[in-house]
Amino acid sequence: MTTIQTAKKTPITVAYGDGIGPEIMDATLRMILGAGAQLDIQRIEIGESVYKRGLGNGIEPASWDTLRRTKVFLKAPITTPQGGGFKSLNVTVRKTLGMYANVRPCASLHPYVATKHPNMDLVIVRENEEDVYGGIEHRQTDQVTQCLKLISRPASERIVRYAFEYARANKRKKVTCFTKDNIMKITDGLFHKVFDEIAQEYPDIENEHWIVDIGAAKLADTPETFDVLVMPNLYGDVLSDVAAQITGSVGLAGSANIGDHCSMFEAIHGSAPRRAGQNLANPSGLMHGALLMLTHIGQSEAAERVHNAWLRAIEDGVHTYDIYKAGTSKQKVGTSEFADAVVERLGEKPQHLKPVEYAKNVHMNIAARAAKPAQVKERAGVDLFIDLPATSPDALAERLRALAVPGTKLTVLSNRGTKVWPNGNPDTFCSDHWCARFESDGGTFAGRHVVQLLDAAVRAGLDVVKTEGLYTFDGTRGYSLAQGE
Ligand code: NAD
Prior knowledge:
Structural class: alpha/beta
Strand order of the largest sheet: 2-1-3-12-11-4-5-10-8-9
Shape: elongated
Distance between the termini: 85 Å
Number of domains: 3
Bound molecules: nicotinamide-adenine-dinucleotide
Helix content: 25-40%
CATH superfamily of the largest domain: Isopropylmalate Dehydrogenase
């Protein structure tokens, strides 16, 4: 008697989304299931219809259980209603389920898809949870608003390690880091420092760092000089769209949002409502998201089959409208016919483009290393931020010096980061948002000094909108100096 072995199906959650979502999801599933992907698909509803039912984050409470159970989410784009307190579903899902890494491969398909960068083949790994994306914002005075940028050592270590492990697992040769640590010496400085530390653990992989402005210029000009790139959230958000666009079309790229427990895979573009329901959209972006998903769940053979068949279809000139170009393209097709063309070519390889070979049984060791022992933290002073319109730096300094809390002294007054007292420059523009730095006048600067200063400031009629503690860590200053200090 013979027993037929059936491969175990991996449960995944699928959402068809809005606009072009249902069409490109149908096409994508046909391509990957045709290639032998073993999936147990559990469907959830997200997006416009859910928002319209009054659920402001675009997802039903019960869908969270499905996501937590399957741990893998293939998501078509959705339409986010404008304004009205609606939350971005993407950001909600990423943050709620701890998806710390965003991975976006961008490769050109020269000469079959028009691009100025024929040899581009890079992957952007972007920190996905912190930086300014905590969305911690405050309006503090009539004139001044602020957004808090948080960069932590654990999140920086995890994303940088992910980038190096990704490079090693995918036989890539170099990891490049972008930061702006010449200006943000403490936050971006930490990211860069962690990058340098972790790079030492991967001597087989070249590493380099660029200040993000010149790095971005190089990326747009000579993207073929990059391989894997890793960067904090905001730079990664902006530059991963640039990278996708310069390969030829944003309609081609997919992305993965990786977490320890749950991961989400999608196209990088949106729901393109004006193209919806016309069998026009290119399903390639979502398909690439699905290929990253198959690799993630250990089905890289199916991913490789689809990818090579897709390259063959592109090379044969079977193109959707967005990449169609008379002379290069042979056949302009719709979403569904494009999927048919890929399915017909399953098992084939491209003849001119380089066939892809997916790494098998990849193991990425992202486990956190033992935390460094905490450094000795000592209070060195306090910054009082004060809302005061129509004053001069000297007049405000006089009022602050009159607070006269024993053991403390006013050392500098700054306005939006620039020193304005002592010896300020009369040309410096001053807003209504001032920072008064108090440090020790000899002995230790204690917590009670902060309370006494606040109390004295309030009694003196000053509007203190926030305080920031000044600390040293193992004797190293953990706060910035004012510009010109
Ligand atoms: P979009 O990416 O949806 O579309 C911009 C243009 O790009 C389209 O008009 C179309 O010409 C082209 N395009 C996009 N995808 C294509 C494809 N697969 N094939 C062919 N052409 C394609 O951007 P948008 O118009 O700014 O946003 C539309 C909606 O999508 C908004 O509600 C937005 O909030 C949402 N959105 C969702 C996601 C997501 O769910 N991940 C991402 C971005 C935007």
